[in-house]
Amino acid sequence: MGENRLLPMSAWLLAACGIWLAGLGIYFVAVRPPLLPEDLRVMGTTSLQIRDAIPGLAGWLKLVFTVMGGFMTGAGVLTAFLAVRVLPLRIEGTAWAIGLSGLLTVVTMSLANFALGSDFRWLLLMPALLWLFAFILYLAKP
């Protein structure tokens, strides 16, 4: 890819998805509490009941979210890099990799949040739709 060449819109959109995914991963590692208010609502319990019944749960969930956030951040960094450096080259197999990785990351997360009735379900639908749009744009360009 030449230095003066403009990136296609699909690359920009997918790079934005990668940056979003990396940012979400950082949120999971650094900020996300072990249980959100919606988690307690779905389980039909309170944080005090959880703490009393399962005293080590908060610490364990922090470790789980740290691992999950690390994977999300890594997937986001790779997505953004590949969007900028590989997508424009149109290497064979790129389309299935874009489609499958989007399905396994942002689409799965969005579907799970709808299944849970998450307060964030509509917000988490946006990256899945953006990924889909980037994928369609990539496929549409010969």
Into which percentage range does the β-strand content fall?
A: under 5%
Structural class: mainly alpha
Q: Profile the largest sheet.
A: none
Q: For the record, give the distance between the C-alpha atoms at the N and C termini, rounded to a whole number.
A: 17 Å
The ordered string of helix (H) and strand (E) elements is HHHHHH
**Shape call:** elongated
Instruction: Find the count of extended strands (DSSP E, 2+ residues).
Output: 0
Describe the structure.
This protein has 142 residues and is mostly helical. The chain has one domain (9-140). The protein has 6 helices and no strands. The chain has helices spanning 9-30, 37-43, 47-53, 57-85, 94-116, 121-140. Helix 1 packs antiparallel against helix 4 (57-85). The protein starts with 8 loop residues before the first helix and ends with a helix. The mean pLDDT is 93.
Which features would summarize this protein structure in a list?
mainly alpha, 142 residues
Lay out the secondary structure.
Layout lengths: L8 H22 L6 H7 L3 H7 L3 H29 L8 H23 L4 H20 L2
Helix pairs in contact: 1-4, 1-6, 5-6
Brief account:
This protein is mainly α and 142 residues long. It is 76% helix and 0% strand.
